[in-house]
Amino acid sequence: MPGAAVEVLLSAPVYPTESAERVAAAVRALFPEAVLAEEGARVSGRLDDVDALARLVQRLRIPDTARGQLFKGRRGERTVVFLNKQAASAGRLNFAAVPGPLGDVRVEIVASSPEALERFILEVAPDTRAPEYRDPGGSDPDAMRPGSPYSPHPPPAPRAGSEEE
């Protein structure tokens, strides 16, 4: 899992027709571990547990989409993605191509170097086409076959009296 060599910052606007509590609840629907505070017309905070991002990507089974969006928003040692605030309030993750008119949740990831950021992105959202990829959800039939190099299960032990002894 990714380490704490990165910082994950969260921010979302609070419009006059919204309550800060509801905006914070939308952010927490995706990131329950977020430490948030109301700052004027914004709810801002951070993820102290940066592994929460990896768990979210795994739970939703979107590593390829997430990796593409994280690389697309990359500038040096930081990357920014925008998540639809309305979808977040329903517990769904929807990447916004550009900030929407209703405001989005801004997720900024800052690393110590561009290389550290790239490592973090690849750990959070691995390439599912890579031969070493193992689906943590177990939907890949090869990943669950005992004896497969991707399987969490060891190959079956030979039976007593079999020719393999």
Describe the 3D structure.
With 165 residues, the protein is an alpha+beta fold. It has one domain: 2-Layer Sandwich (50s Ribosomal Protein L5, Chain: A). The chain is 31% helix and 23% strand.
Strand and helix layout:
Layout lengths: L5 E8 L6 H11 L4 E5 L2 E6 L3 H10 L2 H10 L1 E2 L2 E7 H5 L5 E2 L7 E8 L2 H11 L16 H4 L21
Antiparallel strand pairs: 1-3, 1-7, 2-3, 4-5, 5-6, 5-7
Brief write-up:
The chain is of the alpha+beta class and 165 residues long. Helix content is 31%, strand content 23%. The chain has a single domain, classed as 2-Layer Sandwich (50s Ribosomal Protein L5, Chain: A).
Question: Characteristics of this structure?
Answer:
single chain, 165 residues, alpha+beta, 50s Ribosomal Protein L5, Chain: A, 7-stranded antiparallel β-sheet, 23% strand
Tell me the number of strands.
Answer: 7
Helix content: 25-40%
Q: Give the overall silhouette.
A: globular
What's the gyration radius in Å? 20 Å
Beginning-to-end CA distance, first to last residue: 38 Å
Strand content: 15-25%
By secondary-structure content and strand pairing, the structural class works out as: alpha+beta
Q: Could you state the order of secondary-structure elements as H and E?
A: EHEEHHEEHEEHH
Instruction: Give the CATH superfamily.
Output: Ribosomal protein L5
Main β-sheet description: 7 strands, antiparallel
Rounded average pLDDT:
82
- Compute the number of structural domains: 1
Per the CATH scheme, the topology name is: 50s Ribosomal Protein L5, Chain: A
CATH class: Alpha Beta
CATH architecture: 2-Layer Sandwich
Tally of alpha and pi helices: 6
User: Stretches where pLDDT falls below 50 for ≥5 residues?
Assistant: 140-153
